Fold:
Amino acid sequence: QKEVEQDPGPLSVPEGAIVSLNCTYSNSAFQYFMWYRQYSRKGPELLMYTYSSGNKEDGRFTAQVDKSSKYISLFIRDSQPSDSATYLCALISGGSNYKLTFGKGTLLTVNP
Amino acid sequence: NAGVMQNPRHLVRRRGQEARLRCSPMKGHSHVYWYRQLPEEGLKFMVYLQKENIIDESGMPKERFSAEFPKEGPSILRIQQVVRGDSAAYFCASSTDPFGVEYFGPGTRLTVL
Structure:
């Protein structure tokens, strides 16, 4: 079983839709949870960072963590064509504060 | 405020040649991380360096790969005697401390012919 599972998609939605992106993980040692956005041929860009169960909101983005189920989500409200990118979940275990473990990424296309 | 810089952006090597990838961290950042993104795979941690020290190289292949972050100048990821399986995007990230957010560069795309 892989440490982090993420559906690679692709996911295609119309402009204005609510998008839900998810990752599951197997190692309960993961304590910190991030979402990165990666545009084609670019480096990953940090979107959200959280370390506790519950929701964290930033503009149109909401990150949700359920440690009991080992499940994390990223919701995008009022999606825009500029949101079209690959979204990567990244986790850090409590024993290694710097080593990011990434999901494979979900390719999202928002159609105008 | 320049971000993390990597060069070259694209590198083509023939099998058996050496590849040198360079990374200049963000200003004020002294912690550097290298990740590799193989086709159809997620980003994988390779190595964590501070100035003049390798802190964690647990993700580095045992042979042909080495990394350094000298007192002056950029961090270098060196791949000797490249093989086709080394073809990938190599990303560098930097942070202010090991607990800090990692900011990524644009990557170097290595193609081995």
